[in-house]
Each structure stands twice: as C-alpha cells, then as structure tokens.
Amino acid sequence: MGVITAVCVSKEKGVKKENIGVGVLREGHGLVGDAHAGDWHRQVSLLGEESIARMRTKGLELAPGDFAENLTVRGLQLASLPVGTRLQIGREIVLEITQIGKECHHGCAIRQLVGDCVMPREGVFARVLKGGQVRVGDPIVEVKEHV
After folding, report:
1. How much is the pTM?
2. Average pLDDT over residues 92-121
C-alpha cells in the first residue's frame, strides 16, 4: 500500500506543477485544471517520492511537482507495475496504468532546470476509470481484481 503525498497541477505542459493538496480526478479526463487532462491515454501522471529522493542525492533541491507529475506517491513501486494494472485511491477513484515512462521532449524545461528527468524512466501514466476527490494522505493500492 502507498500514500498520496502531493496533488499537483499546471496550466501549461512541459513545466513544473504546483502542489495544491487536493483535487478532483474526473472519469475519462484526468485531474481537473491540469494542462495534461483530456480524452487520451495519459490523463494522469504519477511519480514515486523515492524517485525524487534519489535525484535529491545529486544535490538538487526538488519538490513534488518539479517533474510535472500530477500525483506523488510514497510506498508503491510504480514503475514495476505492468501496463493494465489498476490502482485504487481512497474509496472511489480507480486508475488504469496505460504507460510506463515516456520520451522526454526536446527542450524539456524540467530536464533543463534539474539536469535530468526521472519521468522517462520511472514516471507512470494512467487513465481515470472512476473519478472522485483526491487529497494528500489518501491511500493508493493495487487492485487485484477488476472493479
């Protein structure tokens, strides 16, 4: 079991996101108010707090959202979960992992700012199957059976 440690949004793509602490995940859309939300397979991005901590060992000052992730998670090895895995957040939200990692686009602001980007290797992308309110402190677990 893991826990949500940040809920982050930005109005533009390719920039750091701001931790707003609480947000709404809309079914078939993503995190309301975020530039990456929409009717596509990468509606929500997740990154492990452990990945950010490894980057901090390089002497970088980093905060949740600095890698443009929507949800920062502690205690769940996200990148080891296969595509198709379903995750439940709290009592009602269900996500389905659609992609592990991504190609970092040329001129990525995050890579330029921090010198490296863990999202291409360890970021996870998902679509929202069931929406609801998400907040810091919510549990996140792998769902073994279809919901």
Report:
1. 0.89
2. 77
